[in-house]
């Protein structure tokens, strides 16, 4: 079970203001560990064993989890929200509620904040990631999500709900293209994870080109390309891969030549010195040291 500390109680030693909303900075001696992130590349299994969604439930408290399904990204909130409520109920969770936010005014209501404060897991569906940031960014829900995440709230997101997790996100871009200027549009994300740019439906939609363009613009960020029915589980400064596909990590930290600053719209990029890691299920990645850890090493550390 999770203990819930409302915003403004003694666990917040100070607050930061972010686009008009206060965010709690917790007392490290008093707080629980930050909640894990389950970031899914879209099209996760909802009819078979549901491995990834079961992992989200387990992290959020198992059968005793209190889940909120956030449908803010989609234009079909009832249809999509009901689907996930049914899936989580089938897994065995008894307390699942659907919550849609259609305006910034709604995102500032106390009932919305209370739903987040009471939850042990919040799951963001797919749709359009820009809807999430424009409707939630800087609101009381935004502040509550960050405060509760610092206290142990588990956050999950699929497709658009995955892309918005980072501080800088891909809004849209061309599929199946070589790296060219202008093929990707970037914007601020919801800042649940720093230092990465996340793309989803990665192998299935041929998105390596646009992810390379993204990291060429932000070479201090790692590019994470997550395949469908595949997820990364982020804990502290590492993530572990699960699911049927792979996660491609694009690292431009050692980039020694790029022509990105001298090109016109549509011109091809030159990128020299970029690293590419491909991680299947069981592999781990150290975000702080920018190093992959093979599954065999992970298993030996756990034995």
Main sheet overview? 9 strands, mixed
Query: What is the level-2 CATH architecture name of the largest domain?
Result: 3-Layer(aba) Sandwich
N-end to C-end Cα span: 28 Å
Question: How many domains?
Answer: 2
Radius of gyration: 19 Å
Tally the beta strands: 19
Q: Write down the secondary-structure element order.
A: EEEHEHEHEHHEHEEEHEEEEEEEEEH
- The outline comes out as globular
CATH third-level topology of the largest domain: Rossmann fold
CATH top level assignment of the largest domain: Alpha Beta
Strand order of the largest sheet: 5-4-6-7-3-12-13-18-19
Compute the average pLDDT: 91
Fraction of residues in β-strands: 25-35%
State the helical fraction: 10-25%
Keywords:
303 residues; alpha/beta; Rossmann fold; 2 domains; 9-stranded mixed sheet; 4-stranded mixed sheet; 8 helices
What does this 3D model show about the protein?
This protein has about 300 residues and is an alpha/beta fold. The protein is built from 8 helices and 19 strands. A hairpin with a 2-residue loop joins strand 12 (about 230-235) and strand 13 (about 240-245). The model is unreliable at about 1-10, about 15-20 and about 25-30 (pLDDT under 50).
């Amino acid at each position: 079970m999770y203990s819930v500390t409302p915003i403004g109680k003694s666990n917040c030693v100070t607050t930061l203001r972010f686009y008009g909303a206060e965010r709690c900075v917790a007392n490290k001696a008093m707080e629980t560990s930050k909640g894990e992130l389950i970031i899914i590349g879209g099209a996760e299994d909802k009819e078979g064993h549901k491995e990834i969604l079961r992992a989200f439930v387990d992290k959020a408290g198992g059968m005793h989890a209190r889940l909120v399904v956030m449908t803010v990204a989609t234009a079909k909130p009832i249809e999509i929200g009901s689907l996930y409520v049914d899936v989580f109920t089938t897994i065995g969770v008894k307390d699942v509620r659907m919550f849609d936010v259609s305006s910034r005014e709604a995102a500032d209501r106390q009932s919305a904040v209370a739903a987040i404060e009471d939850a042990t897991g919040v799951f963001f569906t797919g749709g359009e990631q820009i809807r999430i940031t424009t409707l939630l960014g800087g609101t009381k829900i935004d502040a509550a999500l960050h405060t509760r995440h610092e206290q142990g709230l588990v956050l999950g997101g699929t497709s658009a709900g995955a892309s918005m997790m980072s501080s800088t996100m891909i809004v849209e871009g061309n599929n199946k293209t070589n790296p060219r200027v202008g093929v990707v549009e970037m914007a601020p994300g919801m800042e649940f994870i720093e230092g990465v740019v996340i793309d989803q439906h990665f192998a299935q939609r041929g998105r390596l080109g646009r992810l390379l363009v993204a990291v060429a613009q932000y070479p201090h960020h790692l590019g994470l390309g997550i395949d469908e029915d595949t997820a990364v589980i982020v804990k502290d400064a590492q993530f572990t891969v699960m699911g049927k596909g792979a996660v491609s990590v694009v690292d431009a930290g050692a980039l020694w030549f790029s022509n990105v600053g001298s090109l016109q719209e549509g011109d091809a990029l030159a990128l020299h010195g970029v690293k590419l890691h491909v991680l299947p299920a069981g592999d781990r990645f150290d975000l702080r040291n920018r190093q992959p850890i093979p599954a065999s090493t992970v298993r030996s550390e756990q034995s």
